[in-house]
């Protein structure tokens, strides 16, 4: 059996040119999305990954130790991006940096607003700075929450315009940003994420940073993060799983993208993790 990846076809860039193997610095590689992305990159590309995180439990099967067929292609670097001087060196070694590191659990936004703001804005500043100064491409993972409230949410529940797409469909370059008041700390996450997006965009406009911003909605699947004692018992039940009273709806969400909506026309979109991780 061949130990090398066997992509279905040669991968091409947006200009139609074959993509050469890259060295990728993946910050937050040990998390929910990062662990799946590492697996996908190892299985379907020839890229090399510098996996950066404070823990490696979810990628231990890839890095501790790396299987023989992955030797030299993935390495784990245990560091905290808040205060580790090794970060810039790893970004310099890479062709591309993917930043997935963040506090992104809703239960934390109200109870740990300072940590939420620091994690999603302050701690991300060095990553943006090093990528810009060293002319390295950055893929920054943001969130759909930067869109804030939809215009339709301000209309009466029985208003016919609530169901018109122009009042709830989100467009990355057109939708207004409507957040709640400062006293509602639930919005600390969205505000921090939007501010770091604006910084990334400004670095691109003024200093030529090559970047892509990703705004995931609700990705679900194996190895989801949870808060013990808040989302479930100590062994862990991801928050989203507790939101479904209809198991068949949950199963359909895991196996295919779907939308869930309530009678007052509030929509939630869910996507299985393997649908959002294509390298």
UniProtKB/TrEMBL annotation:
InterPro entries for this protein: Epimerase_deHydtase, Lipid_A_modif_metabolic_enz, NAD(P)-bd_dom_sf
Residue ranges annotated for the NAD-dependent epimerase/dehydratase domain, each copy included: 24-229
Protein name: UDP-D-apiose/UDP-D-xylose synthase 2
Origin species: Zea mays (Maize)
Superkingdom, natural source: Eukaryota
